């Protein structure tokens, strides 16, 4: 009975929001992947715009992920700026990829023409260029504020873009990949502490990266430094504060977060 009572945390607002988001992202990723596949087939460039995994590549994914995990475990502080820079570029591209179909839909639905002229600066640019500016602005806002909601938006975008661009040609490759990832998860979560002295997966997942924007602003003594967050939760996981609706959940602190890795949804 006591063990069942411990599962009551699943009824917390943060837990319910995380579960609902994970289910929604899984559905949105599959839907976007199907639409993207049809679009690429119509344009006859499907093979160039996506990656189709074979058996050797399916086996290499857990091995490459394990090497990356160990690199982050031992050298995270040294490579955090590089990882943040790479994640920033990937997040902007993924967000643009996820939002571009809606721009196309609105243009078709309302018979909008491109390019259009901005009234503020009399410059002509397409709506896709405007969407690119929006994506970059969103990423910059995340870099400055480090807000968990922006982190989740970028993480969801990366998840959808990854599922859309990586193809599994048959059920055998799919089963092989899932089996390898299952072993990968079990080892790094439950057995890595025996070999490396700490839970590698949890240690990497809970580390925050140094914010290169704060570092540069601090070096140049720029104004507004106090408004820029020093540490960032990278959008490789979804995070929800335990006090999502206000108040403190028993046994937690205001800074506690629930998290779910993007790999678990993919």
TrEMBL record:
Pfam families on file: Peptidase_A22B
GO molecular function: aspartic endopeptidase activity, intramembrane cleaving
One GO BP annotation of this record: signal peptide processing
Localization, UniProt: Endomembrane system
Keyword Membrane: yes
Segments crossing the lipid bilayer: 14-37, 58-76, 82-104, 149-166, 173-191
Chief location bin: membrane
Keyword Oxidoreductase: no
Alphabetic keyword roster: Hydrolase, Membrane, Transmembrane, Transmembrane helix
GO CC entries: cytoplasmic side of endoplasmic reticulum membrane; Golgi-associated vesicle membrane; lumenal side of endoplasmic reticulum membrane
UniProt membrane topology term: Multi-pass membrane protein
Similarity remark: Belongs to the peptidase A22B family.
Protein name: Signal peptide peptidase-like 1
């Amino acid at each position: 009975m006591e063990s069942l009572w411990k599962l009551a945390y699943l009824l917390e607002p943060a837990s319910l929001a995380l579960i609902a988001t994970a289910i929604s992202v899984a559905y949105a990723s599959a839907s976007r992947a199907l639409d993207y596949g049809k679009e690429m087939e119509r344009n006859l460039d499907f093979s160039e715009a996506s990656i189709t995994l074979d058996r050797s590549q399916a086996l290499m994914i857990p091995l490459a992920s394990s090497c990356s995990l160990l690199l982050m475990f031992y050298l995270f502080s040294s490579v955090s700026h590089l990882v943040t820079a790479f994640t920033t570029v990937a997040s902007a591209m993924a967000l643009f990829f996820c939002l571009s179909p809606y721009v196309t839909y609105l243009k078709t639905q309302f018979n909008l023409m491109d390019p259009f002229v901005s009234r503020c600066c009399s410059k002509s640019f397409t709506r896709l260029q405007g969407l690119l500016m929006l994506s970059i602005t969103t990423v910059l806002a995340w870099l400055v504020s480090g807000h968990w909601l922006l982190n989740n938006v970028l993480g969801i975008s990366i998840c959808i873009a990854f599922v859309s661009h990586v193809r599994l040609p048959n059920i055998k490759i799919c089963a092989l990949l899932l089996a390898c990832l299952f072993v990968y998860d079990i080892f790094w979560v439950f057995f890595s502490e025996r070999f490396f002295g700490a839970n590698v997966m949890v240690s990497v997942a809970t580390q925050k990266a140094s914010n290169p924007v704060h570092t540069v602003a601090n070096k140049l003594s720029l104004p507004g430094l106090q408004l820029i967050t020093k540490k960032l939760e990278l959008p490789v996981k979804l995070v929800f504060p335990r006090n999502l609706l206000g108040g403190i959940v028993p046994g937690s602190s205001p800074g506690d977060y629930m998290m779910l890795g993007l790999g678990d949804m993919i």
